[in-house]
Amino acid sequence: EVQLVESGGGEVQAGGSLRLSCAASGFTFDDYAIGWFRQAPGKAREGVSCISSNDGSTYYADSVKGRFTVSRDNAKNTVYLQMNSLKPEDTAVYYCAADLDSIVSSLGVSYSGSYGHWGQGTRVTVSS
Predict the structure, then answer these.
(1) Pairing status of strand 3-7 against strand 18-25
(2) Burial status of residue 31 (CB atoms within 10 A of its CB: 0-12, 13-18, 19 or more)
(3) Cβ(39)–Cβ(52) under 8 Å?
(4) Partner residues linked to 94 by β-bridges
(5) pLDDT, tens digit (0-9, with 9 covering 90-100), for 65-116
(6) How far apart are CA 56 and CA 8, in angstroms?
(7) Kindly report the CA angle at 55 between 94 and 95, in degrees rounded to 5?
(8) Between vectors from CA 18 to CA 13 and to CA 22, what angle results, nearest 5°?
(9) Which of 22, 1, 7, 114 is nearest to 77 (CA)?
(10) Pairing state between β 122-127 and 10-13
(11) CA 102, 105, 106, 108: dihedral to nearest 10 degrees?
């Protein structure tokens, strides 16, 4: 069974840090791009970051550039999202998503419809 499991969420004060993990199983992880999305209460889901499989190239939404860093460890089938200098507006449920590099690059790395596999989400709350 294809599975993506997020972990590492929690409640932190503004300016703090969290490291999210996305553990994958049930597919050839090395062939897939991994995207991070978030959905704040009452708002639509938005793209946060993405990392490719082939060359490790990354994408970041303007709102998180300079604060978030995405990385992957293919040997562990895991992608990480290091979140620093957190702001209250970062409060959301964070999801990881996966699909083949060719599909993601064609449809768009920040488009949720580019990804066919999704995790259950992990909640991040940033208090001021």
Answers:
(1) antiparallel
(2) middle
(3) no
(4) 38, 122
(5) 999 999 999 899 999 999 999 999 999 999 999 999 999 999 999 999 999 9
(6) 22
(7) 10
(8) 145
(9) 22
(10) parallel
(11) 150
Give the type of residue at 9.
G
Hey, what are 101's tokens?
Answer: 């590099």
Residue pLDDT, tens place only, 22-62: 999 998 888 899 999 999 989 999 999 999 987 889 999 99
Q: Max alpha carbon distance in the chain (Å)? A: 41
Distance CA 4, CA 14 (A): 28
Query: What are residue 75's phi and psi, to 5 degrees?
Result: -65, -30
Contact by Cβ (8 Å): 126, 88: yes
CA distance 88 to 125: 7
Q: Which of 52, 41, 68, 39 is nearest to 115 (CA)?
A: 52
